[in-house]
Amino acid sequence: MAGKRKANEAGSTNDLRADVLRVLGVLKVATADQIQRLASPHLTFRHTEKKTAAQRKEARTASHRGAVNDLRRHGLAVDGGRTRGGEEVRLLTAAGLAAAAIDLDREPEEMGGMPKSAGRSGASHPMTVNETVIALIRPKPDLDRLTEQPAEAQAAARAAVDAPEGIGTLTSYATGHVRVSAAPVSRHDVVRFQVCACLVSSSLTGP
């Protein structure tokens, strides 16, 4: 147990690190807030007792920030600058992308490379892409993990679950420099949505 703690000084679990690998493997660039909202949407409805939105965000993203820090210590992730709003941007190294490819069941050539300059310009395009993906997926919280939360938080989570279903899951998407499109992927026999970093307003089209 001590050895595991030493290797992962932030105390992150395998599941949390896998969350980060999968999200960054698809989005390439993301904030801890975006990683949490996609990977663990139930956390959005915790820590509601905190007085400010900033305090609530800090609390609900703490686990995934720790996971990113542990991945960074292993050489799998790096800091990529900050958004225009001041949030830290995270991305995977080449080794991190290779690890994410395994978790996502994708070929290495499907993963692309490191977007090294994303955070230098405020990462406005990647952030827009990420918010588009989140809006399309509409991640649903696990209500069983919120049974001890205040009634108001549970009601808000229930409303999110009861809202219309989104389009696909995280693994349905790939980010790249192409228009938003839907095309069959024979290896998975599923539809993968490719989201462009520059043309996110394009409509979905058939194969």
Keywords:
alpha+beta, 3-stranded antiparallel β-sheet, 3-stranded mixed β-sheet, 7 helices, 14% strand
Structure in words:
It is built from seven helices and six strands, in the order ααβααββαααβββ. The protein has 207 residues and is of the alpha+beta class. Strands 1-3-2 form a three-stranded antiparallel sheet. It has a three-stranded mixed sheet with strand order 4-6-5, with no helix packed on it. A hairpin with a 4-residue loop joins strand 5 and strand 6. The protein starts with a helix and ends in an 11-residue tail after the last strand. The N terminus and C terminus are likely disordered.
Output the radius of gyration: 17 Å
Number of DSSP helices? 7
Oligomer: single chain
Q: Order of strands across the biggest sheet? A: 1-3-2
The portion of residues forming beta strands comes to 5-15%
Mean pLDDT: 83
The count of strands amounts to 6
Computed structural class: alpha+beta
Task: Sketch the topology as an H/E string, one letter per element.
Answer: HHEHHEEHHHEEE
Residues in helices, as a percent range = 40-55%
* Basic shape: globular
Return residue spans where pLDDT drops below 50 for at least 5 consecutive residues. Answer: 1-5, 177-191, 196-207
